[in-house]
Amino acid sequence: MDEKASNEVNEKEIICVICPNSCRLRVSQDPKTKEINVEGHQCPRGKKYGISEYSNPVRVLITTMRVEKGKLPVIPVRSTEAIPKSLLIEAVKVVNDTHCLAPIKMGDILIDNILNTKISVIASRDIDVKS
Amino acid sequence: MENIDVVIIGGGPAGLAAALAAYEEGVSVAILERDHELGGILQQCIHNGFGLRYFKEELTGPEYAQRFINKIKESKIKVFLNTMVMQITSERVITTINPNNGVVHFKAKSIVLGMGCRERTRGAINIPGTRPAGIFPAGQAQRFINIEGYFPGKRVLILGSGDIDMIMARRCMVEGIKVVAVAEVLPYPSGLKRNQVQCLDDYGIPLYLRHTIIDIRGKERVEGVTIAAIDEKWRPIPGTEKTWDVDTILFSVGLIPENELSSNAGCKIANNGGPEVDEFLQTTVPGIFAAGNVLQVHDLVDFVTFEATRAGKNAAKYAKDELPIKDCQKSVIFAKPGSDVGYVVPERICGIKNSKDPYEIEFSFRVKNPRQNIIAEIISKGKIIYKRKQKFVLPSEMIHLKVKLNPVDVGEELTINIIEQDSAINVIEKEMLEGS
Amino acid sequence: MKSSNLYDIAIIGAGCVGSAIAQRLSKYDINIILIEKESDVSMGATKANSGIIHQGYFTTKGSLKEKLCLRGNDLIDEIGPKIGVEYERIGAIFCATNKIERETLESEFTKSQNRGVDVEIITDLNRIHVIEPQLNDNVITILHFPRAGIIIPFELTIALAEHAIINGCELKLEFEVGFIKRDTENDVFEIRSADGRKIKAKTIINAAGIYSDKIARMVGLEDFIIIPRRGEYILFDKDSLPLKKIIFPTPTPASKGIVISKTVHGNFFIGPNATEIDSKEGINTTSIGLNEIITGARKIIKNLPFKKNITNFAGIRASTHQHDFIVEESSIPQFINVAGIDSPGLSSSLAIAELVEQILKKNCGYTFIKREDYIPTRNKQILLSDLSEEELAKKIKENPQWGQIICRCEQVTEAEIVEACRGPIPVKNTDMIKRRLRPGMGRCQGGFCLPKVMKIISREQDMIMEQVTKTGGDSFIVFERTKHLNSEVIEKGDML
């Protein structure tokens, strides 16, 4: 069963967002060579985008975190790099269960190595202590 | 009365950049900000995608703001928070109120208006239905979620497919608020493709183009919503209705420059809702400059920064009596939107007539329709005096033209047109024939 | 003031009519209670209404509408200034665009002269356009009523209710009458709310607007039914059209037609249409209705500034088949019906109250004695716009909240909102603040100030933010908090 599935050509349609051309890419992987094949692109950047969106789509994690003793109740945070798309929602849950303590400076690491991605979650701004 | 060389109204992205640019010219600068902190609306735009043009790296809104705020902190720019400007006179006397200092007056040698814009309201688009709680402008919902830490709802329909709508759709889904659909009255999404892919498609949110809300249910809180497809006259088409049970409707139907202070100061307001300005970004009132969303609603904050930097610099020059054109009412040439162009900034050009050399002007404008393979051309005295080919134009993407015009080519006014490449070539050929 | 739950008079319905009656009776030494099912006064037909003080025009000769409208128009000069409500006699004009319409206006001109009303008919086209430059060129004749005026209906109602309250009238909000029992032995009515609360009163005044038939049926009266009629409106931004007059088309037997008028605060509106609807709660606007009023308005004025509209809304009129007001003691002793109050109800409200007072004296055995502690005036709340710069500077020094602008569009300060919260009618939702001070009523419609207004209400009324509603009941604005934050009451010193 598994064998059969992996032999099927798994084609995906991906819209390229690199430029306003918005090429509709057809991306597939050769089951034997594991080579990723991109069609429908009009430039090399499109091909690169197709491969990365197909093999490992990543997104920057954006959310807020609870702040104790801060001027504001929550602080905007982001991941230092894009993390695998499939981990996004789980990563937000980790952030939701964490909190930080004011004062905070932009760039402060609030969560190190989130979900073992080796990527950190950092503060997007300063937050002073509530007076 | 406090005497300041350059007073900046508003501490959002435009005000921050204008203040720093003016300060670098060696004049005294003050920022008047109504909120309790600097940064303006960027503080609630916590998503990434800012700064690619200006900082050449991708930042979140608060990060973009923080970089400027940190620079302001290092400078001697005076910052007045919780300070509401009540009035600006054409003599540049500014009346403010503030809880700690009461009524305070400022006398400025020049002013940069940077008040930004506000969201158009539901009423402004005449959505029918009841008026229960749970109908939010997208920006207000953004504030509740990103700054105040409250859920404004649990199941949402979004009307509008601008960037803020799509970004809010993603923010909702990330925080556990279900977005059932996005409806858009136009036949195309009004935001960037990238946002459509990464904010809607990523989360499986359906986008209904050429649809509008035809009914909102619920007396106390929103209980449901019905959308329908619309025909070319914007009438709902019977039989196309789709209904959801939702507790919240977010909408965003455009932004309006906030210009009550400007028009009370005597600035002429142009058709796009911003003050009419010249190539120095000076309004029709001498010494009052404008930049950012108060002048024209931008799609990228980076361009707000570029624009405000120019305004700040020019305001400082005006304060130092170094601006080349002192009288912005004289020798005016008007720039007009032509075919398929919504508006043009600047609307007035004061310096070209008296210039001996080719004269550089930065125009920005928006097209009315998404088009491909076009030519942006400038016409004066019946002749094409500038043209540029462009593969794509979208109403959601502001076009910037930095041009050098020869003063002898320019008449009393000039017009910017967007035309198809074929027809443009025909015109040029025709002229060549006529010329020969 | 009183020991038991027994009142002399219970007024059911705190619209402009119920509140006017309460205000009138509150100067006497009796116990009055004003009962309202909604979270504020002025929430029914009064809320969304044209806000015009009419001058008796186009009413049937000898009708209550004719008599009470004319009397009400006069009474506003007597009562308005005392209770601190703003109104402006800008004058109304009716416009004819053809011969038939002109004849209608001519006949109304004669009728109005016979009523002894100030009126003028104008056919000189130049003068017509001097009187109202915004009119279309096809207007050939206008009928001008100089003593017609504009008023904000809920401002009048709040002022009336508050004046009654400071003179001892009790106001019970969110009390929906579910049941009325007549205790013939003790000559009292027992009024029960849907949730089981009880009030006793010797006399009931049924001013329940669109629900007045339902209330009448509770005591067995079936002599009228209310037919809800919906009227939709579109409101435009301040200064978007420099109107001088209240502008009407020539009325038809069915309706006065689409009005175009400015408001006391400088906005202007167009509307209403008139649609009979099934539901008494049908206060939704419709695409058809909005189109109808736009088309109607365009027939008479030249430039409708479309980009400047800021909201649309709908109101309900409590009409009956009788086509006249019902103001009388019913066949049940001590039960007075004030029903079928559709247009010109707002204009007539003060006169209706006067008539009710007469009925109480004549038919119900009341001999009213003026209270010794009667406070004859209600001071209008001081607003930022009333203050000179020096006065404002002084106020900020005493109370920094005067220096904190909450609503940018209407320039409302924190101090004003706090004072409204602590007023005679405690403010518990954001719409109540909006009706009193107008934040959220301006061009941004609350886009910027809503969270701040919510925080002030939370702080003043000791409610958590999630309990603050838009308009009472379950109209909650935010649900729970994100990120496991605690629900909180905003405290003094917290950021707004």
Say how many strands of chain C there are. Answer: 22
Radius of gyration of chain A from the CA trace? 20 Å
In the CATH hierarchy, the architecture of the largest domain in chain C is 3-Layer(bba) Sandwich
Q: Give the amount of beta strand of chain A, in percent.
A: 25-35%
Largest sheet of chain C: 8 strands, mixed
Total number of domains of chain C: 3
Summed up, what is this model?
The complex is a heterotrimer of chains A (about 130), B (about 425) and C (about 500). Chain A is an alpha+beta fold and about 130 residues long. Chain A contains three helices and ten strands.
Write a concise keyword list for the protein shown above.
heterotrimer, A: 131 residues, 2 domains, five-stranded mixed β-sheet, three-stranded antiparallel β-sheet, 3 helices, B: 436 residues, alpha/beta, FAD/NAD(P)-binding domain, five-stranded parallel β-sheet, 8 helices
Mind sketching the topology for me?
The complex is a heterotrimer of chains A (131), B (436) and C (496).
Chain A: H1 2-7, E1 12-15, E2 24-29, E3 36-39, H2 44-55, E4 58-59, E5 62-68, E6 74-79, E7 83-84, H3 88-96, E8 99-101, E9 109-111, E10 121-123
Parallel strand pairs in A: 5-8
Antiparallel strand pairs in A: 1-2, 2-3, 4-7, 5-6, 6-10, 9-10
Chain B: E1 2-9, H1 13-24, E2 29-32, E3 48-50, E4 59-60, H2 61-74, E5 78-80, E6 84-88, E7 93-98, E8 102-113, E9 117-119, E10 135-137, H3 138-148, E11 155-159, H4 163-175, E12 178-184, H5 193-200, E13 207-209, E14 211-217, E15 224-229, E16 242-245, E17 248-251, E18 255-257, H6 260-264, E19 288-290, H7 301-319, E20 333-337, E21 341-345, E22 348-349, E23 359-367, E24 371-380, E25 383-393, E26 399-405, E27 413-420, H8 421-435
Parallel strand pairs in B: 1-2, 1-8, 2-5, 8-19, 10-17, 11-12, 11-17, 12-13, 20-27
Antiparallel strand pairs in B: 3-4, 6-7, 7-8, 9-18, 14-15, 15-16, 20-22, 21-23, 23-26, 24-25, 24-27
Helix pairs in contact in B: 1-2, 1-7, 3-4, 4-5
Chain C: E1 6-12, H1 16-25, E2 32-35, E3 52-53, H2 64-83, E4 87-88, E5 92-96, H3 99-115, E6 120-122, H4 125-131, E7 141-145, E8 149-151, H5 153-166, E9 170-172, E10 177-183, E11 188-193, E12 198-206, H6 212-218, E13 227-236, E14 246-249, E15 259-262, E16 268-271, E17 275-276, H7 287-300, E18 309-319, E19 326-329, E20 335-339, H8 345-363, H9 389-398, E21 405-407, E22 412-413, H10 414-421, H11 430-437, H12 450-461
Parallel strand pairs in C: 1-2, 1-12, 2-9, 5-14, 12-20
Antiparallel strand pairs in C: 3-8, 4-8, 5-7, 6-7, 10-11, 11-12, 13-16, 13-17, 13-18, 15-16, 19-20, 21-22
Helix pairs in contact in C: 1-5, 1-8, 2-8, 10-12
